[in-house]
Amino acid sequence: MTEEVYAKANSLSPDVVRSRFAASGVLRCPGGDSSAQVTGARDVITTAAHAFRDLCKPPMSPDKCIFEYYLGAEKRTVPLSAKLWMGTCFEHGAKAVAGDWAVAKLAFPAEVTPYEIYEGADILVELERVLAAVGYDIEAAGKADRYGPFNKTMQECQIRDVRDWSIFETNCEFTVGASGSALLRLLGGRMTLFGVLSGDYHDQAYCPRGRCEFRSRQWSSVYVTLKGEFKDRLLAAVSQSAAK
To answer: What confidence score (pLDDT) does residue 149 get?
Structure first.
């Protein structure tokens, strides 16, 4: 859903929805674009580690990247600083997914309300309904529906196939560029982040044409849980920020 469609579906003002999801934006680096979001403080972003590194090669310097977001209808850009923390790199398997997180600092604060850090116990509930907020999706960019052109999108979906509490799947569906985007729990009016998108399983043999039902490791999205070192690094970066 676009922000406008989400607003209509939930009987909300479009301005309220745009403000609520303003923290989601695009991370533009020399190697490509991905999604990221302002989290915990206005100068801290979370995303996927593979936005900065190719497999286990040395990461690019984050200060070569910019974070792009919208303040109302106005596009804003903020360069990244040189500060970057990422999960431990593994070439393959579940450990590679579990380490696919990154916390970076912006050179100056974005003018948005950050997503809050999920402060509850690290418990993932099978079939819990959650909300994905995507700053950038290559198939959405430049497309239009009856509500007009869009890029940022929301999806309501469910947690599926929790594995070792560090990674899990959902029945959300994305394409290239959505990596690093937020999965949110809605607690009242608060948007609390508890995972970032690592990637998708899109088995075309299983689903050759169009939208398909969830099937673990065949047609699903894979998330890194905000817990352990990921959460500790994020909390440390936020605690040192003066831009709450």
So the answer is: 67
Q: Indicate the pTM of the whole model.
A: 0.92
CA angle 48, 50, 55 (to 5 degrees): 145
What CATH class has 116-225?
mainly beta
Pairing assessment for the beta strands 190-202 and 219-225 based on DSSP bridges: antiparallel
User: Locate tokens 């406008």: which residue?
Assistant: 4
Locate the domains of the chain by residue range. Answer: 3-114+228-239, 116-225
Q: How far apart are CA 161 and CA 164, in angstroms?
A: 10
- pLDDT per residue over 197-231, tens digit each? 999 888 888 887 766 889 888 889 999 999 999 99
Residues in the chain predicted with pLDDT less than 70, given as ranges, are 121-122, 141-142, 144-150, 188-189, 210-211
Chain CA centroid to CA 66, Å: 16
- The number of beta carbons lying within 10 Å of the beta carbon of residue 242 is 8
Looking at residue 32, what DSSP letter applies? E
Q: Is domain 3-114+228-239 annotated with CATH 3.40.50.300?
A: no
Helix/strand/coil (H/E/C) assignment for every residue in 175-243:
CCCCCCCEEEEEECCEEEEEEEEEEEEECCCCCCCCCCCCECCCEEEEEEECCHHHHHHHHHHHHCCCC
